[in-house]
Amino acid sequence: MGLSSALASAMSGLRANQAALSIVSSNVANSQTPGYVAQTPNQVEVTTADFGSSVMTTGVSRELDTFVQNQLRTETGGSGYADQMANILKQLQNVYGNPGGSGTLETALNNFTSSLQALSTSAGSSSAQTVAVGAAQALATQLNVTTKGIQSLRSNAEQDLGTSAQQANAAMNTIADINTKLQGLSSSDPSAATLMDQRDQAINSLSKYVDVRVTTDGSNQANIYTTTGIQLVGAGLASQFSFSSVGALSATSLYNTNPAKSGVGAFNIKLPNGSQIDVVANNVVSSGQIAADLKLRDQTLVQAQTQIDQLAATMSSALSDKTTAGTTVSGPPAGFDVDLAGAAPGNTVNLTYTDTTTNTQRQITLVNVTDPAALPLQNATNANPMQVGVNFSGGMGAIDSALNTALSGTHLSFSAAPLPATATTLRMTDDGTGLAKINSSSITKTISSLTSGSPQLPLFTDGGQALYTGAITAAGSQMTGLAGRIAVNTQLATDPTRLSVYSTSPVTPAGDTTRSDYLYSQLTNAVFSYSPQTGLGSASQPFSGSVSNYLQQFLSVQSNASTQATQLQQGQSVVVSTLQAKFNSTSSVNLDAEMSNLIQLQNAYAANAHLMSVVQSMMNTLLQAQG
Questions:
Q1: How does pLDDT run across 500-532, given as a tens digit for each residue?
Q2: Residue 150 backbone zone (phi > 0: left; psi -120 to 50: alpha; other: beta)
Q3: Residue 468: is it exposed, middle or buried by C-beta count within 10 angstroms (0-12/13-18/19+)?
Q4: For the chain, is the Cβ count within 10 Å smaller at the N or the C terminus?
Q5: H-helix or E-strand spanning residue 435
Q6: Rounded CA separation 390/549 (Å)
Q7: Residues 214-249: tens digit of each pLDDT
Q8: Nearest-CA neighbor of 80 among 302, 286, 299?
Q9: Angle at 43 between CA 38 and CA 46, to 5 degrees
């Protein structure tokens, strides 16, 4: 090796050492900086004819495991989802209260049924009547309070969506801005490494709110998509979430794909190409805090409200509705007659028939729907009973025509019963083919009078005056939000004796327990079916049980859901912590390793400096010899 080659090698070594020392210094200085990824110099051997081999520093490399990084982002989204779900469901459990504690639905219902039981042993006692009315009012109040609690949680989720949208937008804008700055920079450029650290931090922040999938192209541009394929960030362009809150929500504030009918805040995303998408309708996000808030607002807490609305509706109907069996028609064709007179909107005719072709028993419920805009009623697949809406006051001709059209494939026939039946009597028979056999029929009507002569009592009302009849209109079911409006009948609150006196002509005998016994039995022993929308049972096999059974069942379901959400939250926390530790093991600065590198670089620096000193000495010797 000539002296010039030796000098060139030594000088290139010094330059490489200086670059490496600068990187070590940066690593040590940023060892506690969040998101900083350890860097290492990129060095290559350069060989020339004149100077031989030397080393050149071409940039830096970031030490990170991209596979673990992507896993971490996925699980961060899962953790954001689990945290929010566990937090809100835990608060929902606080709304329900501790089992057996004061101020709970369970305790309020037990107090009410106990007061009815006590009333049966002292029917003429004014104090027992007053206590029973007070217990009923306490139960209604507890349902009102529970509704406020659930809707408060929905409103919180609504508000949180706006905050999360702003945070997600800020992160996407940061990523797009850094993409722009990285254009034209090599990935090994030290300034590019710093920008990529900042970009990774912004992506990590975004992954808390939505699920993300990240790809990087040849020009070092990060393209970010949701797992459903919606682009969030492109080259210098970012999508933007938009949220228009409607403020505090109520039980009737429900999501609808039609913005004009939706009662909740619209959550949309404007894509880089300018198009706008409904985030909810198109299932844009599947994980992260935003996905959790949307599910809580539009599904989980709506179902919780449905559960207590169903409780309020079942209690009201159980005490006020009177079911009368249809009159047998021997035929042929055979069937039943029912009188529709006095049926309120929402009241029903129930029939059971056997499809003799398959020997399958089916149920049909004819619902009195007076709002034509609510027709036809929608049934879930395999719903049992199937619901058919018809206006009972529309005249027998219109009723017959509507029913025969709606149920044309059942081999059932509907007509006005011939004289001497009343003009409001509906006859239900088979169509004469022998392919259907009606087994039973009944009509259920809501009793409106406190002294009807029947034990049924309109004890609870919808808002204090209107009776709960289960009416269905274009705006929805009367059951929606009933738990927030339910109240004790004001006439009964004024005159508690009506808990015992059910007839004024003739007057109910003193000490008669017929009504109190009936009310108690309806709330504790009678079996009812509950809507699948409560999350219990299915369309084909609805959950059945007493009012107490139903209350205990949905409270148990909610408790289990809260427990599972907490367990998922804890599990996600462990997964994220484990992945973070695994990621840090390769990407974070290891001070021990940096100190070791520093010593090696110092030794190499000293060796190169010594070589330069030797070369200089030899050159001086040569020059002196030539002189």
A1: 999 988 888 878 899 999 999 999 999 999 999
A2: alpha
A3: buried
A4: C
A5: none
A6: 32
A7: 998 878 899 999 999 999 998 789 999 999 999 999
A8: 286
A9: 175
